[in-house]
Amino acid sequence: MYMVAADAKTAMTWKEGIRGLLHNYKANNVCPMTQFQKHWMRLSLQVSPSGKIPVRSITRTFASGKTEKMVFQSLKDLGLPNGKNDEIEPADFTFEKFFELYKKICPRTDIDDLFHKLNGGKEYLSVDQIINFLNEQQRDPRLNEILFPFFDRKRVVALIQKYEVDPEFTKKEWMSVEGFTRYLMSDENAPVFLDRLEEYQDMDQPLCHYYINSSHNTYLTGRQFGGKSSVEIYRQVLLAGCRCVELDCWDGKGEDQEPIITHGKAMCTDVLFKDVIHAIAETAFEASDYPVILSFENHCCKAQQYKLAKYCDEIFGDLLLKEPLEDYALEEGKVLPPPNALKRKILIKNKRLKPEMEKKQLELFWKGEGNLEVEEEEHSESGENGVSSPSEDGNPQEFKFNKSNSSSDIQEEGKNGSLKNKKSAMSLSQEEEQAMAMAQYQYQGATTNVHPCSAMSLSQEEEQAMAMAQYQYQGATTNVHPWLSSMVNYAQPVKFGGFDVAEDRNIHHNMSSFNESACLGYLKTSAIEFVNYNKRQMSRIYPKGARVDSSNYMPQIFWNAGCQMVALNYQTPDLSMQLNQGKFEYNGKCGYLLKPEFMRRPDKTFDPFAESPVDGVIAATIEVEVISGQFLSDKKVGTYVEVEMYGLPTDTIRKEFKTKTIPANGLNPQYNEEPFVFRKVVLPDLATLRFAVYDENNKLIGQRVLPLDGLQAGYRHVGLRTESNFPMSLPCLFCNINLMTYVPDGLGEFVDALNNPMQYLSQLEKRAMAMKAMGIDEKDIADVPASSGKKDKKAANGKSPATPSSSLGVDGKDGKAKTPTKESACPAPVSIESLKQEKQYIKLIKKQTKEMNGLKKRHDKEKAVMQKAQSSVVDKMVAGHQKEKQSVEKNLEKAKKKNGTNAAELESKLKSLVENHDAKVKEIVATQTKDFSELVAKCSKEEHEVKEGHFKQQCEVLKQLMKVAHEQQTKQITTIHEKQGKDLKGQQAKQSMDESKAIAQDKKIKNKAERERRIRELNSNNMKKFLEERKRLAMKQAREKENLEKQQGEQLEELDKEMDKWRESQEKEKVEDKLAQKPTAAV
C-alpha cells in the first residue's frame, strides 16, 4: 500500500496507526462474533453513490448453498427492502438485524441440538447446568485448579448478564439458546488460551534455547532458478515475525561496483545489498524487538566485503551489535546471551577470522598501510553439503598486506570473477557427488542480470535442463575482510566436525548450518547427540539445492531435535510454511519460542524418535469432533474436513482423519462425524493440530494450525486461514475438542481411584458392609490388588480398550507377569549324612571294615602265636626249675633222714636254687613282656595308619560325591531356568499374538493406519514389558544361582569342618592309645 500525506507528521501518525492494526496479534484471532461485526461494518461502509447499502452486496455474503429468493424473503421478514436492486438505509441495517438475517438463512441447528441436550428439553439453561457444562465439557481436566479455577455461580451469572439478550431470562438467571449461541461465538470461548498469543514465555534463557523464526533465500519471490529477487520481500518477512533472514552477497557487475544479492549464478534477478540493508533497518523491529540475525552467504571479494561492512555500519548504526556484551564474552564455556539482552540488536552470521589475525589485519587496515591479499589458496564452503568450511579452530586463511597492490587490482579480481572454487575440505564420494549433482551449479560466463530475451527461444523445461547440466554451485568465500569479520559475534559459523568435537570444544557462539539431507542423516545416526548439541549452541537448517521450485521440507522433525533456525522459503505458502506460521503465532508472534524444558536441561536425555512417554512429560489423548462449518465457500460446492497431527514421528498422523463430503453446501455444512481420536500423543508440547477444509475437487479452501500447548477443550469455533495464513473473514469450523491424560489400557479404574479416592473408598466400604450383612467376617477378606477389567478404558475416557488387559503371561489379579513356578528352582541342600548313604561311600566303608577286620585278625593271630611261644618257654623253664628243685628237695630229705652233715649245705643250695629260678623267671617274663608290648604297639600303629588311610579315602570320596551332587544341582537349576525362560518367552509370544489379534479383530477401529499404529504401539510396549519381565526373571535366576553357589560353598566348608573334627578325633585316639600303652605279658 502506498499513501501520500500532506506533511511528515501526518504520515507518521498514519504509519503508526496502520502498523498498530496490522501487527495486532489479537486482530488475527478474533472470535466469530467479532468477525460478523467486522463484516457488517464492511457492508455498512460499502454503500452506493446514494449512500445506501445495496441488497446485492448482502446476497453475496450468503451466496453459497442458498437461493437469492430465501435471502430476499428473510429481508422481507425483517422489514427491510428485499428487491434485487433495492437499497437499505445504513441506519436501518443494524448489527442486530444482520445477525437475525444470519440466523434465518443459516440456522445453527448444531448449537440448538447441543442446547437441548444440556437442558433436558427446556427453553433455558439454569446456572447449575451452565456450571456443569463449563466445568465438565469446556474445561481441560489436566489444568491446575488453582491457576485455572472452576466456574462458580458468580462467574456464570456474569456470563448470563453479558450474553443473554432476554431481560426476563437475565433476571431469572437463565440463558436462552440465543445467549448460548452468542457465548459460544465469543472471545471467551476461543479455541486457544488468548494469553498464549501474548508474549508469555521466559525470554532470559540463552539464545540456543529458543526456536527462531527463520527464512531461506529471503530475497526470492518465487522459484530459486530463474526467479525474481525483491527488496520488498525482506520487509514483508520481517513484518511477519521472521527473525533470521538470508543474504546471498555477490560482487556487483555494473560500473558502480555495488555488491548485490541474488541466488548465485542461477539466472535470478538481483537487488542491491544497500537497498536490502535499508529495508531491514526500517522494519527489523516493527513486529518484534527481539534480535534479528542476518545470515550472510558471502561470495564477495575483499573490496566489496568492505562495502558490506561499511553499509551495515552506516545504515544500522547502533542497531548493529558490533561488540560482544560485557556479561557474555566470546569464551569457551560461556553461554549465549538471552533475547532480552539483545533487544533491538542485529547480529551478523558470517565467517570470522582468528581473533589474533583479525586484530592484526584490522589495525593495518585502519592505518591504511596496504591491501589484503590471500596468502594461501582459498577454500570454499559447500553450500549444499550441510557444512561450512572453516574448522572449529577458526578461519584457516592468513592474509598479508602488499603496498604494491592497489585497490584497483582487487576490484579487477572481483570483476573478473577470479575467486575460483577449490576442492572442498570435505571430500565427497562419487555417490554423494552424483546425488548432489542436481543441486550444484556453476554457469560459465553468465552474468547475474539476465536479459528477458536470453531464454526466449527455450521452453522453461529446456532452460532448466540446460542450466542444471551446466551449473555448479559456487561456495561462499572464506577470505573475509577484517572489518566485516569484527562485526560477527554470537553467530559464528564453523565447519561441523562432529558432535563429540563440538562437545569437547564447548564454544557456545559457534554454530553450523546443515542442509535438510545432511541433517536427516545426522538425526538417523545421532539423534540424541544432535539434541544435546542444540542445548549448547545453535544450528541452522536450510532446504537442499535440488528444490529449484523453492518448495519446503517438513520442519517438524528438525524442531523435534531442537534445531533453532529451521529456515524455510517464505515465498512458498505450502504446508510447511503453514505449520511454521501456526507455531510462531504464539508468544506475541515475536519470532522466538522457548523450547520445552527437557530439550534445554543438560541433565535430561531426549530421543526425538521416542515412542514412549518422555520422563516428566504426561502423554495426552485428543478427540476432535468436527460438527459443522460456517461460510466455508462462496460457491455451491461440496466440502470435507481433514484433521491432522504433527509432532514426534510417533505422534504425527496425516491423511487419516477426514469427514464425509457434504455436497453442494459451502455455507453451513453439517458433518456430525464421530470423534477423530489421537489416542496417544507422547509429547503434546511439540505437537500441533491442523484443520484443513477442501472442496470436492480436493482444492484447499482454508486451514488452521493450532499448537496443542494452549489448545482449549470443549465446543469451539475454529477460524480458518488462507493458504498463506491470512485470516479469512467468516469461514470457521464448529468442533468439540476433548483433551485428556493418556491412560494405558487396563489402568482406567486405577486412574479413576486416584482422581476420586473418596468415591473409590466409599464403594469399597459399601461392598464390605454388604459382605458383613451376609455373615462374612472382615478377617476372612484378604487384601488383594484391584482388578483391572476391560471396562477400565471406558471408565477413563468413554472408549473401550482394543487391547485385552490380560493374557497367558499376565496375572488377572494384579496385572503382573507370571513367573513360571511349576518346578522349584532351588535344589535341596546336600547333607553329609545323605552323602554317606551313597553306594560309593557304603562300598568303601564295607571294604575298609573288611580290611580293618583282617588286620585285627592278623594282629590277634600274631599275639596268640607270641603268647603261645612265651607260655611254652615259661612252662619249660618252670618245669625244669621244678624238676631241679624237686631233686634238691629229695636229696635234702634224704640228708635229713640220715642226719647228715650236708643237710645245711643242701638247704642253702635249695634256697639259692629257688632264688636263681625266680630271677630267671623274672628275666624271661620281662623279656616276654617287652616283646609282647612291642607287638601290641606295632599292631596299634598299623591300625592307626590304616584308619588314617581309610579316613583320607572317605574324605576324598565324600568330596567327590559332594562335587558330583553340586554339579547335578547346577545342571538341574540351569535346566529349570532354561525352561522358565522358554515358558516365559512362549507366554509372551502368545500374549503378543493374542493382543495383536484382538486389535486386528476390533471392529471399533475402522482406520487401517490407526490399527497399524495400535499394533506398533502394542509391540513397542510389549517389547519394553517383555524385556523387563525377562530382566526380572534373569535377576531372579541370577540370585538363585548365587544362593546355590553360596549354599554349596557352605556345604564344602561344613564337610571340611567335619573332616577336621574326624582328624582331631583320630589324633586324640592315637595319643590316648600311646599314653595308655603299658608292659603287657601273656601269662
Automatic annotation (TrEMBL):
Gene3D superfamilies: 2.30.29.240, C2 domain, EF-hand, Phosphatidylinositol (PI) phosphodiesterase, Phospholipase C beta, distal C-terminal domain. Its EC number is 3.1.4.11. Pfam families: C2 (PF00168), PI-PLC-X (PF00388), PI-PLC-Y (PF00387), PLC-beta_C (PF08703), PLCB1-4-like_EFh (PF22631). It catalyses: a 1,2-diacyl-sn-glycero-3-phospho-(1D-myo-inositol-4,5-bisphosphate) + H2O = 1D-myo-inositol 1,4,5-trisphosphate + a 1,2-diacyl-sn-glycerol + H(+); a 1,2-diacyl-sn-glycero-3-phospho-(1D-myo-inositol) + H2O = 1D-myo-inositol 1-phosphate + a 1,2-diacyl-sn-glycerol + H(+). This is 1-phosphatidylinositol 4,5-bisphosphate phosphodiesterase. PANTHER family: 1-PHOSPHATIDYLINOSITOL 4,5-BISPHOSPHATE PHOSPHODIESTERASE BETA-4, PHOSPHOINOSITIDE-SPECIFIC PHOSPHOLIPASE C FAMILY PROTEIN. The keyword Transmembrane does not apply. The keyword Calcium applies. GO terms for biological process: lipid catabolic process; phosphatidylinositol metabolic process; phosphatidylinositol-mediated signaling; release of sequestered calcium ion into cytosol. The active site is at H216, H263. It comes from the Eukaryota. Keywords: Calcium, Hydrolase, Lipid degradation, Lipid metabolism, Metal-binding, Phosphoprotein, Transducer. GO terms for molecular function: calcium ion binding; phosphatidylinositol-4,5-bisphosphate phospholipase C activity. InterPro entries: C2_dom (IPR000008), C2_domain_sf (IPR035892), EF-hand-dom_pair (IPR011992), PI-PLC_fam (IPR001192), PLC-beta (IPR016280), PLC-beta_C (IPR014815), PLC-beta_C_sf (IPR042531), PLC-like_Pdiesterase_TIM-brl (IPR017946). Its cofactor is Ca(2+). Ca(2+) binds at N217, E246, D248, E297. Residues 484-600 form the PI-PLC Y-box domain. Residues 600-728 form the C2 domain. Residues 811-821, 881-894, 992-1010, 1037-1048, 1058-1076 have a biased composition (Basic and acidic residues). Binds 1 Ca(2+) ion per subunit. Residues 373-431, 782-830, 880-904, 977-1010, 1037-1083 are annotated as: Disordered.
